[in-house]
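Help wanted!
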Amino acid sequence: MSHKITDHKKQITFLLALSMLGSSASAQGTVKVGVLHSLTGTMSISEITVANAAQLAIDQINAAGGVMGKKIEVVKEDGASDWPTFATKAEKLLTQDKVVTVFGGWTSASRKAMLPVFEKNKGLLFYPVQFEGNECSPNIIYTGAQPNQQALPALEWALSKGYKNIFLLGSDYVYPRTANLILKKHIAAKGAKLAGEEYVALGGTEFSSVINKIKAAKPQIIINTLNGDSNVSFFKQYQAAGYSATTLPVISFSIAEQEAQSIGPALLTGQYATWNYFQSLPNPTNKKFVAAYQAKYGKNAAITDPMAHAYMDVYLWKAAVEKAKSFEPSAVRKAIVGISMDSPLGKITVAANGSLTQAVYTGQSGAGGQFKVIGQSKGVVTPQPYDALTFPGKSCP
Amino acid sequence: MNRVAQPILLVVTAGALLLAPFYLSAYGLTLLGRVLALSIAAIGICVVWGRGGILSLGQGLFFGLGGYSLAMHLKLAATPKGELPDFMVYNGVEALPWFWVPFVNGPFALAMVVILPTLAAAAVAWLMFRRRITGVYISIITQALVLAFVTWLNGSQGLTSGTNGITDFHTLLGIDLRGEHIARNLYWCTLMVLGAALLSTAWLLRTHFGTLLTAIRDNENRVRFLGYHPAAYKIAAFALGGLLSGLSGALYTLHLGTISPAMIGVTFSIELVIWVALGGRNSLLGAVGGLVLGQLAKDKISSAVPDAWLYLMGTLFVVVVLVLPQGVAGLLERRKPAAPRRKTLGEVSDVVSP
Amino acid sequence: MDSVFLFGQLFTGLSVASLLLLTALGLALSFGLMRVINMAHGEFLMVGGYLTFLAAQAVGPGFLWLAFPLAFVGTALLGALLEATVIRRLYGRPLDTLLATWGISLILQQAARQIFGSTGVPVTAPPWLNGAVTIHGGPLDSLTFPYVRLFVIVLALVVLGGMWWLLNRTRFGMHVRAVNQNREVASILGVNTRRLDLLVFALGAGIAGIAGVGLAMLSPVNPTVGAAYIVNAFLVVVVGGVGSVLGAGAAALLLGFVTALAEGLTSSSLAQATLLILVVVFLQWKPRGLIPTQSRALEEG
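Answered by r_m:
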């Protein structure tokens, strides 16, 4: 009799222990993480490769023995380029699959849709893309550039090259609108001139009116926050109207190596882009990353800033888990602050607001869709979620 | 389906739905709740299209009006007093736009959830039916209207939050939307609204109104010659469709915790219609069932085989229309021994037509 | 607005109108003849664009001689197939046709996505279309007309002229007009209406294919390019008047100019929303469109 009872007790304690571990770690010594990107729809072209980069890091970590002795098990979900779907899939990952963290998202809209889900279920999201700032959820690690890590350095670069009359062109959604709001304040503060500001609906392909307005405004440079296919149409119609990189340069925030390939290097030669990462960065960690990615996904695969961020995010998470000695999201969030590592982007450190202290580069597009680095920030730039000039008095807690 | 089986099946389904919170997983429950919320719009389509013969491809407009009415209030309730909603701040808006101001008041917003879509639908219907615009013209116009609405939402970020839509709600009339049992209560609430909508619409369609609506669908001129005013009935039906869409939109917004233009656009509006077509455009239960099962299938299949999903859905559109014009409900109906009646009708028309 | 900008916008309007017209002509034809709204019509435009891309891949910069026949014949065949398998079976059920063709558009879009990817494929216009006519001196100094846009405008004019000739100067056109006016009587008088439906539908699809060639000169071809044009193309048909080729031409011009003017004054999103509302208001004033065709049937379906 007594024997039996102890057996039961053992079982119960074992079950209790399991449940206390959180459903995070299953008995087989694996830990579940979610990867949530658009695998279908308009955003899939950009997001599939970002998901691939995260998968590469996970595979590498698993091959080297996993995290705290546990192999990482990936639950992949498709956001389908549809913001509400991101919210429902995030909910599924957190409540049904019980993943300990999620790597995912690209558009601001998808992040905004997921944010309440992560806050409600106390999950943790690693978001790898540059964004408009003005947000600091304790449940999100924002590793992409804040406005002061991409937009403002680009403006400074343009001003330093003597371009004082600036035209702002973007797709009509939150990132370009906010980035341009900040840029306008700084353009005014620096005594430069705003030639004009235009937005085209997401996916829009008709630029005749916009080019006509640019022609009337006679700017010296265009700061371009267009997204996706709109860029191809814009550069095509810009060239047809007789412009080129020498007569009217364009500096873009959403054109990386992959986009450059699909726009066609011929249309883009000589144009500029600002990022925290270019495939051509010479540091050894990057060389290894590029080689590993191309070995797995094709030797001509283009590698972009969000991909590099997504790849590094997995390693950041691993480092934080090991520091916290726990998979529990809030412990990981606490532990991640202050972690510093050599990444493909160079040396990065996680700041208290959950963003990265990282360097900023300006590149010029050349043949083959690669960018040549022609400018670089002095050291690393501290992330500022709220631009002090545009949103005075606001800051992250 | 025979006369005994149908009520039994109905009771079993209703019971299973009522008890769902006790046996479904958390995710399963929110999914089901969301889909049931959506199916309220299907009732509206059944009335407008199935019974009224008016194919609106713009139900997303009314769905959106209901959803946004509620979302505006929820957003204001989640914003600290004296501050502007976050998206207005980072779009450089400095004062609360006039049409946002009254939505601070919860009861007002809840009233608007019903009033705005109904009024909008009545206005659209009045404009169309007054000029005797019919058939595909209505489909095209309603589609253009929903596209116009979505384009305006996308293009007016400071006022509407644009493509992001409105997200991050905390409380509704003092109830914490992130609380423990909220999913369960919201589910039951949705089920109740759905039940009420179903019963009252079923009743309405059995009245003189329902009969006339069908008569107008089948031959508008004859109804007019009989001395009725078809436009008035069509406007009323369309307004009812708008009302149900608006309710559906508000509940859906609550379930999902967000509303955005992408959720209410051209594709969404036409997808609603096709699930109703699949279930049976003439049958309230068919329409609701078609939408619920279709959406559940979408959730499962689109994540398992994302690429195959669109092929499947496209094929379904074609097959349903070609082979099953009355949907699955029509297929079940057909098993009824109704053959003799049909025969006499056929004979009569044979005699009359030459 | 200074005069250069104003004329620039007028030119924009003309350019927008020509693509709209090419897209809408086929719709107007089949709608007029069969009272059928083909939601997959935008996908003919897309297919035309992809065929242009393939032609450019196959023969290099001077691809237009191949692109036109390829796009026209390819989409016309696809149109014929669609008519024979689906549309014909739904005759007299316009609302159902609308839904079925929407399903077909989903299938075609997904097929394109799997074959070509969801990002647009760029087509580089032939070298002789690079560059622009620029006015020097005078009040319109520095006004430019890019060759590609002029090319699309000329294309639209040629197709419109061809259609007019076909409908008004040939036996085929006479049959089309006869069926347009009264299907039963035309059929009794010996017009093979079945065959005519098939031909007209295929022709309309082929014209959309040609529009696809024009489109590919201006922007990348992606799976949703048809969806982006289809609503406006419907509006052209509705505003122009059912089945009227000249009406479609006038409506396309009207819509193009209104768009360009609104874009000049506001942003592109607001311009699009305004345009859609204006069309609905316009239909209050003229529910049968700019140039309504006379029908001898007692009751419109």
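OP: Thanks! One thing I noticed: Chain B has one domain: 5-333.
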